[in-house]
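In this supplementary section we document a worked example of the pipeline. Step one takes a protein sequence of length 195 as its only input; no multiple sequence alignment statistics are reported here. Step two produces a three-dimensional model, which step three serialises into structure tokens for compact storage. The input and output of this example are shown verbatim.
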Amino acid sequence: MTSTLPTTPPTPSPTPSPTPSPQAARALVVVAGLPGSGKTTLVRRLLGSGVPGVRAVDSEDVAARWRTGARVPYRFVRPLVHTRHRVRVLRVVLGRARTVVLTDPWTSRWWRPVVLRTARVAGRDVRLVLLDVSAGDAADGQRIRGRRIPEGRMRRHAGRWARYRSVEGAGDVLVVDRPGAAALSLAELLGRPAG
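The serialised model returned by step three reads:
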């Protein structure tokens, strides 16, 4: 004789949580675009004086420290600023912050894979937010902030940006223009559900 156990109705499968799991929450968000496109402005507007669990990394922070009271023209210290910034980026991406938001032109063919490889080693999902701003509008942005990069360098950035945009692969990518960037919310920047 076989006994039967009382049957209970099947439990419904859990619905996906609107907030990412701790593992999925470990992310790198790259805000990319030409110099003067508004990357720093966007990140400062959305992150302000800080958001818990989010660490912003912007070369402007390092450059501002080197420019304060400097007697040497910035063009001479630029290589040092870039080196210091890049070391800082890799350290932060490998670090403990749940989410890292990096502003970067994203036009360097050797630097992109280094950052992406480091993010992979750190177990971070990568999200790209591309500010699709013309070279002319980016040059206007540089004038407004009071610091223009040399024309030759800007042309090289613009050429590399156009080539990158034409072959940009699939993945978690958000492309916005200037008005779109001005309307972007923090949740949209981070690729998280609102709320």
